[in-house]
Backbone:
């Protein structure tokens, strides 16, 4: 691996760290900001629920499907070059979003943001690893993980304040400013580095993997409106299945695969892949769904909703480090299972809270955040500790791809299930298309839905469906905890240090 032999003075290295941490701050803010802004965007454009669903899904799909490919390109063509291109593209897309004339443009630009985010994050992490060694590298990546957690924790609150002061377009202007600052800091200080042994990009693997994710997510998003038995839904699901088989065949035959599927022969590695899936259903989906509920259905202000969301995300600032310390006494697998059990208890408690009980809501959300924080702080280290040392790089790449890709799929599935549950609780009048009404409610657009039914009826149906969903998510989280305990809880795993605890941001 090519690196420069000269060590930069401390101010230069600190500038590099600040630039990459700013990038790590802006990415989760872009994710959470889109969720907070969705009800307001729906009002501005009188958007269809399906169009609103793509505000978040377009970002997550492009981000997840291209993250590993971006790492390969950074190694091959230069980490600095790719980081600067990624942040420049992100800045440009964010600025363009401030003047987006309609939903088609907005969704397309969100997808472009996801592409830029994948490029910037993959190349930025690789560049950071080149600039720091030993304990300094541990501290640098620890700060990077903390910064990413801060973006998740405070993103909804900051987004809410911006919306209330200047409207939803201010969110994208704010992310553009932060991305621009990162770009200006990195351009004069970040040094170029490449890996002369870098592999060629697995183009066939990238294309089939991305197409599979898009087909699956589109099918799940369209199903609540068109029906699971509709021709379009069936064709998209069939296409996703075929593309998955093609992807597996490609990865087995290509000389340098994007994802080395042979790692899934390790049972413990397979168990680790369950952790990001579990945290998606007990935590990530709530980052999107709860702002839609608080703002769009319950009528809270954007800043008030953002303040309530702190209870869910703030534990991510401290619990992951606590989890790393606890591995001195308990195995990482057992701790992850315990965390998921706590999160499941929080989900069930939240399902019992009545509207108008903010403190009970906050306490339940805090329990979910604390529970999720335990596996969140350990799963990156587990991903590389359960495979042979020489396969650690590929294992980390597969894990991060699984994490981000599952976030997009989990969100689409959860939105579809919530739509079905809300529709079930709505009055079943033949003259009403309850599926469309339910979709509008799920995306926080009560005004559109109230043209057909009274607001009180709509809110009652939504809350009943949402509580049913929370109980289902609690069940999924419990099953995940049991599976993790089976796969990872039998034998102790070596204690994880700070760099493993923080992990690579999702």
Residues:
């Amino acid at each position: 691996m090519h690196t420069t032999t000269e060590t930069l003075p401390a101010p230069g290295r600190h500038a590099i760290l600040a630039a990459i941490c700013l990038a790590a701050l802006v990415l989760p803010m872009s994710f959470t900001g889109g969720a907070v802004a969705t009800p307001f965007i729906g009002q501005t454009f009188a958007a269809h629920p399906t169009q609103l669903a793509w505000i978040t899904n377009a970002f997550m799909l492009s981000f997840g499907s291209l993250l590993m490919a971006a790492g390969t390109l950074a190694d091959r063509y230069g980490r600095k070059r790719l980081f600067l291109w990624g942040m420049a593209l992100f800045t440009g897309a964010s600025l363009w979003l401030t003047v987006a004339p309609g939903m088609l443009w907005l969704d397309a630009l969100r997808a472009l943001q996801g592409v830029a985010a994948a490029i910037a994050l993959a190349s930025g992490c690789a560049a950071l690893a080149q600039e720091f060694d030993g304990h300094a590298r541990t501290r640098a990546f620890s700060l990077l993980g903390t910064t990413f957690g801060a973006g998740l924790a405070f993103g909804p609150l900051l987004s809410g304040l911006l919306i209330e002061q200047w409207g939803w377009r201010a969110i994208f202007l704010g992310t553009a400013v932060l991305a621009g600052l990162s770009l200006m800091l990195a351009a004069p200080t970040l040094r170029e580095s490449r890996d002369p042994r870098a592999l060629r990009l697995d183009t066939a693997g990238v294309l089939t993997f991305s197409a599979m994710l898009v087909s699956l997510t589109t099918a799940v998003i369209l199903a609540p409106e068109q029906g699971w038995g509709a021709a379009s839904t069936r064709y998209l699901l069939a296409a996703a299945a075929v593309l998955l088989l093609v992807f597996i065949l490609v990865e087995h035959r290509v000389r340098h695969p994007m994802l080395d599927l042979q790692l899934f022969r390790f049972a413990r590695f397979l168990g680790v892949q369950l952790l990001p899936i579990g945290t998606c259903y007990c935590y990530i989906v709530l980052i999107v769904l709860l702002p839609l509920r608080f703002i769009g259905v319950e009528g809270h202000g954007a800043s008030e909703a953002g303040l309530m969301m702190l209870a869910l995300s703030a534990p991510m600032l401290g619990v992951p480090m606590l989890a790393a310390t606890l591995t001195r006494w308990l195995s990482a697998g057992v701790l992850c299972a315990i965390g998921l059990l706590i999160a499941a208890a929080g989900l069930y408690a939240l399902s019992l809270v009545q509207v108008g009980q903010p403190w009970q809501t906050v306490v339940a959300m805090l329990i979910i955040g604390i529970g999720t924080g335990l596996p969140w702080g350990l799963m990156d280290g587990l991903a590389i500790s359960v495979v042979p040392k020489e396969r650690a790089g590929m294992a980390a790449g597969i894990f991060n791809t699984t994490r981000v890709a599952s976030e997009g799929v989990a969100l689409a599935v959860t939105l579809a299930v919530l739509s079905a549950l809300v529709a079930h609780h709505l009055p079943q009048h033949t003259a009403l298309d309850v599926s469309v009404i339910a979709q509008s409610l799920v995306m926080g657009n009560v005004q559109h839905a109230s043209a057909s039914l009274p607001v009180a009826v709509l809110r009652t149906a939504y809350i009943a469906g949402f509580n049913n969903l929370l109980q289902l998510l609690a069940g999924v989280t419990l099953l995940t905890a049991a599976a993790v305990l089976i796969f990872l809880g039998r034998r102790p795993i070596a204690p994880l240090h700070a760099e493993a605890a923080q992990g690579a941001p999702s």
Notes: DSSP finds 18 helices and no strands in the chain. Residues 10-45 form the longest helix (36 residues). Residues 440 and 448 are 7 Å apart (CA to CA). The two ends are 25 Å apart (CA to CA).
